What we know:
mainly alpha
Amino acid sequence: xxxxxxxxxxxxxxxxxxxxxxxxxxxxxxAQNIALPVTVLFALLIRWCVGLHGYSGMGTPPLYGDYEAQxxxxxxxxHLSPSQWYFYDLEYWGLDYPPxxxxxSWICGIVATYINPSWVALGESRGIETHASxxxxxxxxxxxxxxxxxxxxxxxxxxxxxxxxxxxxQTAIFSVLIQPCLILVDHGHFQYNAxxxxxxxxxxxxxxxxxxxxxxxxxxxxxMFKQMGLYYAPAVFAFLLAKCFQPRHGIVLFVKLGLxxxxxIGIMLLPWIGSLAQLQQxxxxxxxxxxxxxxxxxxxxxxxxxxxxxxxxxxxxxxLVRLATGAxxxxxxxxxxxxxxxxxxxxxxxxxxxxxLLKYGLLNTSLAFFLFSxxxxxxxxxxxxxxxxxxxxxEPWAVNWFVQVAxxxxxPLLFVDGQHIPxxxxxxxxxxxxxxxxCPADTQIPRTVLKLQWLSTLAxxxxxxxxALVPAPASLPDIYVVxxxxxSCAMFVGxxxxxxxRQFTCAQPDRSGSKQKKD
Length: 519
């Protein structure tokens, strides 16, 4: 090799993920015991700092925003009977999430009433934005995330069933807990998405432990907390059905899973199960077809196509529902069929391979739903992002890039919320700690991919710069949002193709045994 090429190759191999360097340093110093506490405390600090900035609808009466919606649901659930929860004053943030969210709001409302009843006083607390009430709301999001999501992430990557070195495990936990999109949406904009995603991670953990009934229960909790959890349903169904076809499980597992799913959903619907009208109202509120094909400006195919073809003006709502449903099924079916076919094979028994294939299936299915399904929100990109992050050790450059684009796609939402400083700090921080060209030396990025990533980064920076310096023309007031949507959608379609390719090409069973990787 010529000297100049050798020097370049050596330089490339010296570029590693800085987070990985930190954990390698701790290992070399014999300080492994402090790694996890430091990671958790750092993740907590970032979330608390983001919470010091704005949130959805801050100081904008009469409806405010998502922050007020979450607070208002605490107000109505703690003061009204469950029979009124899905009917009460639907024009002012009527409850439109599944029952587990309602129960979470009820519990938080009880705690709020105990501390200061004025925070959730029925009809009198609307729009309350006192310092103490905001502190309580921010703390509730933190507590719920650290009760559900964080333990699931730690247990999954610490599990002996996951074949990773100690440094890789700690780097993965650190990376998943500091990924900026979930932090900015839950602790900036303000929601409780980490609970839904946490239950999904629990489901993957139980899959790795071969506890399939527990996996089914955890998944039911995910979509009974937020209906977007159903984006994972085809992949979970394919995985569990395939397990039922394996000789050592069979019909017994099928019956157990059926009873677990029906029992979990039945328990959560218990307050309303005696009234068909109540169940119909819950269904109507949770799946609001009347709202239209998509919400605001979201980086999915229908919103991007709307730039040139006004689908909502051409088709009736029911036709659009059928179009979106058909397109979504057409896109996710190859991944799910492949997942089912591979896992039902008698010789496909390696746990690590099965769980890895499940992660790809969850990612490809949920990304298909985000891009093609009906009534998608910008924040729904968090749904495919969750299983993608579980593949961060297998797909370092692709997941890093995916996070960058997902964060960029959320900018219009975060800009309105006044999250400029947290957005840029976390964007730069993620790129510095995790992103390409900072990839592990043993998984170098193809040169073409590296060039494409730099081009995409320059494109995103160009749109940001133009938005900051050049006022949008009066005839095109949403030009920068449209550019964001179009670019992000094109990138997500590319990621969907890549991750499907990876699922199909990485599906062969590992014949090397279960021995863990060495550092």
